[in-house]
Amino acid sequence: MRRQVGLLVAGVTALASSAGLVAVGQAEAAQGCRVDYSVANQWAGGFSANVNITNLGDRVDGWKLVWTWPSGQQVTQAWNATVTSSGSQATATNVGYNAVIATGGSVSFGFNGSWTGANTAPSSFALNGVTCDGGTTTTTTTTTTTTSQNPVPGNAMERVAAMQPGWNLGNSLDATGSDETSWGNPRITEALLDNVKAQGFKSIRIPVTWGQHQGGAPGYTIEAAYLNRVKEVVGWALADGFQVMINIHHDSWQWIAAMPNDRANVLARYNATWTQLAAAFRDASPNLVFESVNEPQFTGVDATRGDQLLHELNTSFRDIVRRSGGNNAARLLVLPTLHTSGDQARLDALATSINGYRDPNLIATIHNYGYWPFSVNVAGGTRFDATAQKDLTDTFDRAYNTFVSKGIPVILGEYGLLGFDRHINTIQQGEKLKFFEYLGYYARARKITTMLWDNGQHFGRTSFQWSDPELIAQIKSSWTTRSGTAYSDQVFSARSSAVTAKTLALNLNGTTFAGLYQGSTELVRGTDYTVSGDQLTLTASAMTRLSGSRAYGTNAVLHARFSQGVPWRINLITYDTPVLSNATGSTSSFAIPTNFRGDLLATMEAKYADGTNAGPHNWTSYKEFDRTFAPNYTNGATTLTSEFFAEVNDNSRVTLTFHYWSGARVTYYVTKSGSTVTGTTG
Fold first, then answer.
1. Kind of pairing between the strands at 521-522 and 529-532
2. DSSP string, 439-505
3. Is 205 helix (H, G, I), strand (E, B) or coil?
4. Does an H or E element contain 39, and which?
5. 224-239 and 263-280 are packed helices; what angle lies between their axes, rounded to 10 degrees?
6. The dihedral of CA 426, 432, 435, 440: what is its sign?
7. pLDDT tens, position by position, 653-677
8. Angle at which helices 429-445 and 386-402 pack, to 10 degrees?
9. Which of 180, 291, 312, 414 is catalytic?
10. How does DSSP classify residue 595?
11. In the prediction, which pLDDT does 170 show?
């Protein structure tokens, strides 16, 4: 059931800004609005309804909506408003975070109710004492006016573009322990920020977890020493010329997630937190940006309800910051989608919120860690293939079409690969490089500002060196141009066979091939290699020379150079099929003796004798790299983890198939009996 009712709005009181000048006089107020009332669900004796108020007149600051039930209904529970009843009359008043309805803006609330006999919709409403008449009017009132607290218009798109590229100071102030070192990183120093700046980053996101540094209700006071430490780090970053983003970070899952069942307390704590932060940073440089909450999530509710709860938080956040005045009146504010997801429904929900605020200084944010099977190396997702690429382009296209194309900037607040949480080599090097090359390029094409997630595994917090120079070179290049890549960065030759010519497909990515080098020595085109379209062929004579004595492993390293971007490394590898040996061990530590013979492990399948899948993620036979199995090339072993055996049936032989990057496959068998594991080759 849906019904629209037009309303008059009572006299509007202009909002006082903390920095504004007060003047008293006569003013004309345009009044008018629309109410949409709909029954979302109805059952025997009960129903749930939604009410949306759209303001067609001047700004409203504080509202009360009154209606009469024609069939004796009663409200039993409400959200986003306080609803009381007196006989057949119901009154809904705003809560703190949705008191303001801007011109053209709207607020919504909902409730559950009871009914008997009939559930007829209300025929009229009154807002702030004025009965609806379906139109707008202009009245003369005596008002107290001040400078508006609404943000002044600014070019948010240009300001966010100037934040590209960005970097995350992860696992420091966002750590959930007693201090910023509790997750293993050293204390933040000015020197660290200086060195990050020297790497070419223009913005820095400083995640902050506040919960363990707060007092209890009702004030939820933030520890002065901790707040001062955050202010110190923010000050260093601003002094370095960074644009800086701070937020409420792991609080999202620590206590905000409980909002569905503890709404009043969570909202009070959230509002108290942002009230303190808004006051603390009220006069900070406009280069400081606020993000309402990191990766918002809510326990036990579906996505639609999650969107509604997030709208409450985002609305409250924006209103608190704007009301605090100073530079906060026009500060850039970042609003996330639910889970910072790039799915269309989540983007649409956030777009509805942002459009309702009519605030020119708002930014949408999402996170992206790639196509999940590729991002963690599970289900055979070993390559950055067409499926993984499409997942990325579809996400960025949706963000562009929903926000950027309409003048609302988007920040990719975190990006990377989820496998990095365990080890940056969980994803094969060449596939990793292709992912980051393409992400940087496509984000740039879609005008999305990117912020690399770094919890200390990329840029050394005291060494100020990159753990993977090849990776950061590819990332930096992607900020301005494209680089050529290839189907692989590995060319395998079996030692048990004669040396032959090898062909590798190039991904030119809009570049042109410029040459092939070994160190500073350029190989001879036509003699050492040929190029036909995107096919690079190394001749048999070149392969023979470059392979030398044909020892197992990498015999030579070449680099393909292109007309732009960074060169593409190509490893020439001699191998033979790996040899595995029988073993016994325990579920807590089981290692298969492995003579890798130059080959490299790509993935592992696990199946029972009847063909069903064994181990974790039993919807796929391909197990998760580095979590259930891992190669140890130094010790000559392939390890199966306790996590793998925890989901393997007792006394049921499991057939393992190891897939290697050369294309070789080797079968092995394991049987778990209690805590004992036996492994055999046949």
1. unpaired
2. HHHHHHHTT-EEEE--SSSSB-TTT--BS-HHHHHHHHHHTT----EES-SEEEEETTS----EEEE
3. strand
4. strand 33-43
5. 50
6. positive
7. 999 999 999 999 999 999 999 999 9
8. 20
9. 414
10. E
11. 98
Q: What is the pLDDT of residues 237-290, one digit of tens each?
A: 999 999 999 999 999 999 999 999 999 999 999 999 999 999 999 999 999 999
Neighbouring-strand partners of residue 91: 66, 84
- Torsion angle, CA of 293/299/301/307, rounded to 10 degrees? 0
> How far apart, in whole angstroms, are the C-alpha atoms of residue 276 and residue 3?
41
Nearest to 194 by CA among 153, 155, 251, 233: 233
Say if CB 122 and CB 67 are below 8 A apart: yes
Prediction pTM value: 0.81
N-to-C CA span, the chain: 68
Task: Quote the CA–CA distance of 672 and 153 in Å, as a whole number.
Answer: 66
Contact 195, 464 (CB under 8 A): yes
Write 516-523 long-range contacts (CB < 8 A, 24+). 516/558, 516/559, 516/560, 516/561, 517/558, 517/559, 517/561, 517/567, 518/546, 518/556, 518/557, 518/558, 518/559, 523/558
- In order, the DSSP letters of 122-182 are PS-EEETTEE--SS-EEEEEEEEE----SPPP--HHHHHHTT-SEEE-TTSTT-SSSSTTT
Q: What share of the chain is helix, strand, coil (3-state, %, to 5)?
A: 25, 35, 40
Q: Is 660 exposed, middle or buried (0-12, 13-18, 19+ CB in 10 A)?
A: buried
User: Whole-angstrom Cα distance, residue 444 to residue 465?
Assistant: 26
Q: Which residues contact 71 (CB under 8 A, 6 or more apart)?
A: 115, 116, 117, 118, 119, 120
DSSP string, 308-361: HHHHHHHHHHHHHHHHT-GGGGS--EEEEPGGG---HHHHHHHHHHHHHHT-TT
State both tokens at 503.
């062909």
Task: Measure Cα distances from 5 to 53, 127, 623 in Å.
Answer: 10, 11, 57
Q: Which of 470, 247, 323 is nearest to 19 (CA)?
A: 323
526 contacts: CB under 8 Å, gap ≥ 6: none
C-alpha to C-alpha distances, 553 to 94, 218, 634, nearest whole angstrom: 70, 64, 12
Q: Is-catalytic flag, 470? A: no
**Sequence-separated (6 or more) residues with CB below 8 Å from residue 674:** 650
Query: Which residue in the list 180, 291, 295, 431 is annotated as catalytic?
Result: 295
In angstroms, the CA 297 to CA 213 distance is 21
Name the β-bridge partners of 560: 516, 568
Percent of all residues in the chain with a pLDDT value above 70, rounded to a whole number: 93
Residues 337 and 402: beta-carbon distance below 8 Å: no
The residue assigned the tokens 């049921």 is 652
Please check whether residue 506 is in contact with residue 535, taking contact to mean a CB–CB distance below 8 angstroms.
yes
Nearest to 398 by CA among 335, 453, 350: 350
Dihedral angle at the C-alpha atoms of 608, 613, 617, 619, nearest 10 degrees?
A: -160
pLDDT value at residue 138 = 61
Active site residue 414: yes
| Cα Rg of the chain, angstroms | 30
* Cβ–Cβ < 8 Å for 111, 49: yes
The answer to whether 238 touches 203, Cβ cutoff 8 Å, is: no
